[in-house]
């Protein structure tokens, strides 16, 4: 993901450019309008593991799309709209999911206790992870079967221990494997050290 400089786009700008360029099916505009009215572009991607900062969710989403395109896109076999949908929207479930809280932390230099902000989970729609993203997308825009499967199972066994179903989905839908691999690489390799400075 590019670090913002004089001529670099923010993660939000990059997300919107990718979305508007490649996602053109019926309902895409309505879905984007809904996303714009959530905290998606301000929310973190996690509370502490990766992109646990303001704008982290959109940073992660763009990173996953870019990783998918760089590592797994085959012009003869793959559909770029499907890659954009899966990369950008696989974690839509995390919109309206976090809240900013505060806790007391002792300052090592002064010995004083200070209130420090942190992100906590406030899940008001506990519908799962991948399946929740599929549900939210399909309220506005229809997914193809392989897109739904990819988003549903993008966490692999990190999100669901039903390995038989995961293996079956990965065996049947290459897009699901590609999204899972891109999500892993983005989370554990590419996003190390990403912070608000990366937006």
Task: Describe the 3D structure.
- This protein is mainly alpha-helical.
- The protein contains eight helices and two strands; from the N terminus they run ααααββαααα.
- A two-stranded antiparallel ribbon has the order 1-2.
- α1 runs antiparallel to α4.
- The protein is globular.
- The mean pLDDT is 89.
Separate helix tally:
8
Measured between the Cα atoms of the first and last residue, the distance is 9 Å
Helix share bin: 40-55%
* Secondary-structure element pattern, one letter each: HHHHEEHHHH
The 3D shape can be described as globular
Radius of gyration: 17 Å
Strand order of the largest sheet: 1-2
Instruction: Tell how many strands the DSSP assignment holds.
Output: 2
Helix/strand class = mainly alpha
Largest sheet, in brief, is: 2 strands, antiparallel
* Unreliable stretches: none
Strand content: 5-15%
Overall mean pLDDT stands at 89
Concise structural overview:
With 199 residues, the chain is mostly helical.
Please give the structural blueprint.
Elements lengths: L10 H12 L5 H9 L19 H17 L7 H10 L8 E9 L6 E9 L8 H9 L6 H8 L10 H10 L1 H17 L9
Antiparallel strand pairs: 1-2
């Amino acid at each position: 993901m590019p670090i913002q400089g004089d001529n670099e786009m923010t993660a939000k700008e990059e997300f919107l450019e990718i979305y508007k360029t490649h996602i053109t099916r019926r309902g895409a505009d309505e879905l984007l309008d809904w996303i714009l009215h959530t905290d998606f572009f301000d929310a973190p991607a996690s509370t502490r593991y990766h992109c646990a900062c303001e704008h982290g969710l959109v940073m992660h989403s763009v990173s996953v799309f870019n990783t998918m395109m760089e590592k797994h896109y085959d012009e003869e076999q793959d559909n770029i709209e499907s890659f954009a949908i899966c990369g950008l929207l696989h974690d839509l479930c995390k919109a309206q999911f976090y809240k900013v809280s505060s806790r007391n932390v002792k300052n090592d230099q002064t010995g004083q206790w200070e209130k420090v902000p942190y992100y906590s989970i406030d899940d008001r729609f506990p519908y799962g992870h991948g399946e929740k993203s599929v549900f939210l997308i399909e309220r506005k825009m229809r997914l193809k079967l392989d897109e739904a499967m990819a988003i549903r199972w993008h966490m692999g066994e990190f999100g669901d221990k039903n390995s038989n179903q995961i293996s079956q989905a990965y065996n049947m839908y290459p897009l699901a494997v590609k999204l899972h691999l891109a999500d892993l690489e983005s989370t554990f390799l590419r996003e190390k050290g990403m912070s608000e400075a990366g937006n």
